[in-house]
Amino acid sequence: MKYAMESEGEAKRLETQAQQKGYQLDGELAGVHLPVTGKFLDAGCGSGLLCRYLKAQASSREVWGVDFSDLRLHQAAQAAASENLNIAFQREDLTTLSFEDASFDVVFCRYVFEHLARPDVVLKELHRILRPNGKIVLINFDGIVVNMHSRDQFLQEQLEQLAKGYVGDLYIARKLPALLAHHKFGDIHWQTSCMDFTASNRQEEALNTRSRFEFANEVLCRIFGGEKQANEFKARYFSALDDPSTTIFYTKFVVEGTKR
Ligand SMILES: C[S@@+](CC[C@H](N)C(=O)[O-])C[C@H]1O[C@@H](n2cnc3c(N)ncnc32)[C@H](O)[C@@H]1O
Fold first, then answer.
1. Residue 24: its pLDDT value, please?
2. Would you say residue 148 has pLDDT above 90?
3. Phi/psi at 192 (5° precision)
4. CB within 10 Å: which end of the chain, N or C, has fewer?
5. Fold adopted by 10-143+168-196+250-259
6. Helices in the chain by DSSP H: which ranges?
7. Where are the beta strands (DSSP E) in the chain?
8. CA 98 – CA 66 distance, rounded (Å)
């Protein structure tokens, strides 16, 4: 299954996003205890920003980044080389990883699960490649893009249509602890935080979502039944965001588990 936002500009969007309030790695990982050695995997690494962060924090870590986009891996390798960071990047589909059983100490998967058509299959694979007592860290937003309210009833219906028709699950974050338990992970715990787009950061998020919608245009056309309808949806969405009484907020989940 193709990634919905696959595009030349996606690496730049991910790097810009990581600078936005609420998306910064420092905040996300503040409560996560990580060893300074061992083998780390970033599953669905995108532009490799988390790989670079992990390696820059402790050069004794062996860091791997995998993604099924050749373009993203090329961009990630270039960014790591420009910072003199030794990180292994490899093309992998998360549903069928080529790694041996029990080969990683820590596995991260950040902002990927909402895009997966088969989250169960991916979690089974991540469990397989973790060593016993190895740690998994899943970072996701619940309700990303769609958790908004305006008095435009037609838009509200379109948002439901978007969430229903999306390839993955835009509300997956709340389901991750149960998914981990189902896959026999133990010591499951999580932290949540609210990312609220108010006057000061709403414009940044609107720009981010403009890129998301541009890159995922094919998906929007499929969901809304054509280019004209997709454009109408986008116009309503951004007009609602321009209205200061429209609420938009996502809940970030940082979920940890241990392989038993
Ligand atoms: C929203 S981006 C997140 C990238 C990165 N983790 C970050 O935090 O910026 C999702 C990434 O997951 C990758 N991806 C989605 N499904 C995948 C799959 N089945 N196998 C490998 N990579 C996948 C996409 O190519 C994309 O780079």
1. 94
2. yes
3. -120, 150
4. C
5. Rossmann fold (3.40.50)
6. 10-17, 25-29, 49-57, 70-82, 119-129, 153-165, 176-182, 199-215, 217-224, 227-242
7. 38-43, 61-67, 88-91, 104-110, 130-142, 148-149, 185-196, 247-259
8. 11
User: How many angstroms does the Cα of residue 66 sit away from the middle of ligand 1?
Assistant: 9
pLDDT tier for residue 199 given thresholds of 50, 70 and 90: confident
Other CB atoms within 10 Å distance of the CB of residue 139 = 22
pLDDT of residue 132: 97
Neighbours of 11 (CB within 10 A): 22
**Cα 46 from Cα 141, distance rounded (Å):** 16
- Between CA 8 and CA 70 the distance in angstroms is 11
Contact 203, 256 (CB under 8 A): no
| Closest of 125, 73, 118 to residue 100, by C-alpha | 125
H or E element, residue 57: helix 49-57
Q: What are phi and psi of 156, to 5 degrees?
A: -60, -40
pLDDT average, residue stretch 171-197 = 97
CA-closest candidate to residue 195, choices 37, 47, 75, 28: 28
55-78: per-residue pLDDT in tens?
A: 999 999 999 999 999 999 999 999
SS3 249: strand
User: What are the pLDDT digits (tens) for 225-257?
Assistant: 999 999 999 999 999 999 999 999 999 999 999
Q: Which of 10, 70, 112 has most ligand 1 atoms within 8 Å of its beta carbon, as the pocket-test mutant?
A: 112
Judged by DSSP in three states, 102 sits in: coil
Distance CA 123, CA 203 (A): 35
Counting atoms of ligand 1 from 1, which one is nearest the CA of 122? 19
Q: Which two tokens stand for residue 159?
A: 């948002």
**Residues near 55 by Cβ (< 8 Å), separated by ≥ 6?**
61, 63, 80, 85, 86, 87
The verdict on the CB of residue 90 being under 6 Å from ligand 1 is no
